[in-house]
Amino acid sequence: MSTRIGVITFPGTLDDVDASRAVRYAGAEPVALWHGDHDLLAVDAVVVPGGFSYGDYLRAGAIASLAPIMREVVEGAAKGLPVLGICNGFQILCEAGLLPGALTRNEKLHFVCRDQKLRVENAETAWTSGFTRGEEILVPVKNAEGRFVAAPDTLTALEAEGRVVFRYVGGNPNGSAADIAGVTSENGRVVGLMPHPEHAVDLLTGPSEQGLGLFSSVLGTLAGAPAA
Amino acid sequence: MARVVVDVMPKPEILDVQGQAVSRALTRIGVSGIEVRQGKHFELEVDDSVDDETLHRIAGDLLANPVIEDWTVTRV
Question: Regarding the domain delimited by A4-224, which CATH topology (the fold level of the hierarchy) does it fall under?
């Protein structure tokens, strides 16, 4: 039976189709999850994709973090369910308390949309185990609120514990603290990043196929772990 | 029913790029010497049964993000 990876759709989600395609390219079965449901449909992992859930009202990700499906995701994450948040999904995971810090307006206020080089800083998370530490990947970044901030002691702890997963290389697009593009939870099962690996899985539409590595990594992680 | 105001502001150490942009725009209408920080103002119509503890909880749990924002709760 193939691995089933849930992809959540909120009102205003944009990248659920690309995320589902990336899941399929990696060899898993994408399972559509609906924001208003209290059911993860027994998936093996969850992707919270990008977009503008609830129109970014209040704060990006704030309303979505309280959606019924997110209560299930938070409960699942507590039991080790691998969760990947991309862009707005990263913002949602921070608002839900699954990841530390917050994402704020880009330093120059511009919506930045470009291909961005990232360095993999931690190749031991559920979503990066197929990479090697120090490897560089090229994926699109597209956001207006991608500037990662956290309290100084939180930043120190993230660095000390190796919980910075991706760092911007060749220019910080938004003024993120310490060039941080993505972070992980204490147990390495939850990962969030602002750039879009799901847009870099096919040379027809993306700058590389290196984004696929996150999705194939979680398959490897799940295959190597005893069933929950 | 009571009226409650919740004001939410970016923490002093958080770079407020929107406030900076407003400050710069002020110079374009000929006003200098003003620095703006931009926040949010919520007006709540609150049932008398809602206590202060609940008000502070909703402010800290939803209206503001404690990682980046401070807030005040005022009954008016």
Answer: Rossmann fold (3.40.50)
